[in-house]
Amino acid sequence: MMNFLPSAIQISYLVAATLFILGLKQLSSPATARQGNVLAAIGMFIAIGGTLLERQVISYELILVGIIIGSVLGTIMAKTVAMTDMPQMVGLLNGFGGAASALVAVGEFWRYQSIPESPTVASMIPIILGVLIGGVTFTGSVLAFAKLQELLPGAPITFPLQQPFNALLAVIMLAGSGYLLVNPENIPVFLAVVAISNVLGIMFVLPIGGGDMPVVISLLNSYSGLAASVAGFILMNNMLIIAGALVGASGLILTQIMCKAMNRSLGNVLFSAFGSGGGTAAASATGAQIDKNFRSIDVEESAMMLGYARSIVIVPGYGMAVAQAQHAVRELVDQLERLGVEVKYAIHPVAGRMPGHMNVLLAEANVPYTQLYDMDDINPQLDETDVALIIGANDVVNPAARHDQSSPIFGMPILDVDKAKHAIVIKRSMNTGFSGVDNELFYQNKTMMLFGSAKDVVAKLVSEVKQL
Amino acid sequence: MAEGLIAGLVVFVLASFVGFEVINKVPPTLHTPLMSGSNAISGIAVLGAILIAGQKQLSVTEVVGVIAIVLATINVVGGFLVTDRMLQMFKKKEVKA
Known about the structure:
The complex is a heterodimer of chains A (about 475) and B (about 100).
Chain A: H1 7-26, H2 33-52, H3 61-80, H4 86-114, H5 121-148, H6 162-182, H7 187-205, H8 213-235, H9 238-261, H10 266-271, H11 277-287, E1 295-296, H12 299-307, E2 311-316, H13 318-322, H14 326-338, E3 342-347, H15 357-364, E4 372-374, H16 375-378, E5 387-391, H17 400-403, E6 422-427, E7 447-451, H18 454-466
Parallel strand pairs in A: 1-7, 2-3, 2-5, 3-4, 5-6, 6-7
Chain B: H1 2-23, H2 31-41, H3 45-53, H4 60-87
């Protein structure tokens, strides 16, 4: 069937695929990233143009209406979303992509119902796969969105007999798929398969805690690529297969990077309800061994310490982002630099709610990316740092990760702020972090706690430092 | 049809390797924009949606196709725009605010 298509379409697909690859390549360097994104967008534009020329596309009105509605909604979402909400946004968009792929599979199934020809096994397999992967991506992403947006509790949700229930679903799914391969005309069974695919997506994300959600979103991003690829198999369209495979591979790599940053295997993220029950139990166990005395410090004294330090490393965490304190932090850094203090930002790989999220948030506050240091680069320098200023970060600076084997976060790479000469921790209270683990850094002698909301405290620090 | 499947698989596997290679060396700074950028590319499903929606008969297929177009276009447009919004903030030198 492909042979009859005009070469122009195929060439447009070739150009688009090349632009996608070049775009992704350029996205790997901060200097060219923006251009890379534009290239990929142009590729998409060309690919859509090519598809509109396909012979089987004969009515354009509804297509145009669909594209216009989608463009308007997409633009509004992109322009209004807050940078802190980026993980949810990516999750939701991802869900839409997955849903679209699943709908392509459903639509193709219905096309076969209206023509005499009945689908072969070779065309039913991709249809079922498309429904499954697309459906899981859709409901999984929407649920991840709901958890991150706090429409649902972020803690893992479990219920009795969850595993047997999931296994039962999987068995029904397999049986239904097998039945459809033999009897492809059976609409009720097909609808059941569609429904179960969507339920599977929910069951997949339900037991995963909010802290692990970025890993899930990254994995679902990979799935949405796979789903698009499968849609390509359904329609025998190379463009879909290529672009889907590119996204599938990139999503998988990102997922792997994130798991490595948390020192956990993907299986551990997906199948253990870490973050609520297990975490707090372990925390109370280890917490008992730590001397619970901590020193607090006031704003004036902190400002003196910072102003007269030679080098400062700032460790921003999600708490800073939630408090929208990044602009105040940059002001503080401006003031400190005026006094001749050397300031660097230390960015943990999982700072924020997804990898690289903190970099985006700081970039929004006009912090040049050359001031941001990755964990591996900054850790050797922390020995010679006068003050480590920790703003709204917790688990990523907990020394227990290095030595306490009983800690749930044991083995996670951390920023070694306890090696700096002093540490000032800006924090609301002594509550535990996302993992529910107590932080022994807070009880060390050289650590000072500066209590309050990040934004207020940093703003006060700015005015104090100004007077130095 | 089976040959078509095999040919598709060849393309799929090769494209996956390209994806792995191209993305392997991305610095952590760019992970979020990369994720949202590649997410926008996965909106390529809009092509599939156009192909099934464009057939001239008002049927379940066409209705489903149009819904798919709307969703996939949101993914594409929203994804690229929000990625651009993030990336335009990445600056090398301090700009006076």
